[in-house]
Amino acid sequence: MIEVTFDQIRKNEEIRSYVEMGDQALGVMGFTEHSFQHAFRTANIAARILTTLKFSDREIDLARIAGYMHDIGNIVNRDDHAHSGGVMAFQVLRDLGMDSREISSVVSAIGNHDEHTSSPVNAIAAAIILADKSDVRRSRVRNREFATFDIHDRVNYAVKDSRIYIDTEEKTAVLKLTIDTSISSVMDYFEIFLTRMLLCRRAAEFLELQFKLIINDMGLL
Question: What pLDDT does 151 receive?
Fold first, then answer.
């Protein structure tokens, strides 16, 4: 079997098309940005998490691959996109000659990243969950008419800074947000993202970490 690398995946035109067209489809429906920026951020954050936790170089590269590809199922439909994306990734990676065990790890991570049906079934999946759900930022809002913002637009637009970091000494995964409360309240954030934060806690626990959420320097979880 061939050791398929992240560098090969990011240069693969078929996968690039799925990321690009999936984002365009979501744009038509008014969803937040899911373009290459989100794909690369998810890939890089997931890799950084596993690097900090001293996982192997190969597991780190597989996390990058899963992170980059995790939203390709949006080209099929937003609903159930994690499952359709996992099936698409299976076919693409098999065609590239990836080892079946590595395909299994990547496909499981992709198929288990959406908060409605997901579970941190392996370390790569756990890292993808934490990386994906921490990417909340103003630049992901497509709507430029503030007066027509719905609660999702307001919450994302209100986030001035979002970062997740691992403290190996304290054994914590800390998501730290800075929110402009003149745009959206902290309660609005919880209304929209509580399910995601609970999933992040489960993902952190899989990695033997305690999940902490800090908003405007206040610990909330």
Answer: 84
Q: Cβ(114)–Cβ(203) under 8 Å? A: no
Distance CA 83, CA 104 (A): 13
CA distance 51 to 207: 12
Paired tokens of 35:
């373009």
Domain boundaries, the chain: 6-219
Confidence grade of residue 120 (pLDDT, cut at 50, 70, 90): very high
Residue 130 has pLDDT above 90, yes or no: yes
Give the model's confidence band at 92: pLDDT under 50 very low, under 70 low, under 90 confident, else very high.
very high
Flag whether the pTM goes above 0.85: yes
Measured CA to CA, the distance from residue 121 to residue 119 in angstroms comes to 6
Fold observed for domain 6-219: Hypothetical protein af1432 (1.10.3210)
Structure tokens at 6: 């992240």
DSSP collapsed to 3 states, the chain = CECCCHHHHHHCHHHHHHHHHHHHHHHHHCCCCCCHHHHHHHHHHHHHHHHHCCCCHHHHHHHHHHHHHCCHHHHCCCCCHHHHHHHHHHHHHHHCCECHHHHHHHHHHHHCCCCCCCCCCCHHHHHHHHHHHCCCCHHHCCCCCHHHCCHHHHHHHHEEEEEEEEECCCCEEEEEEEECCCCCCHHHHHHHHHHHHHHHHHHHHHCCCEEEEEECCEECC
pLDDT band per the 50, 70, 90 thresholds, residue 191: confident
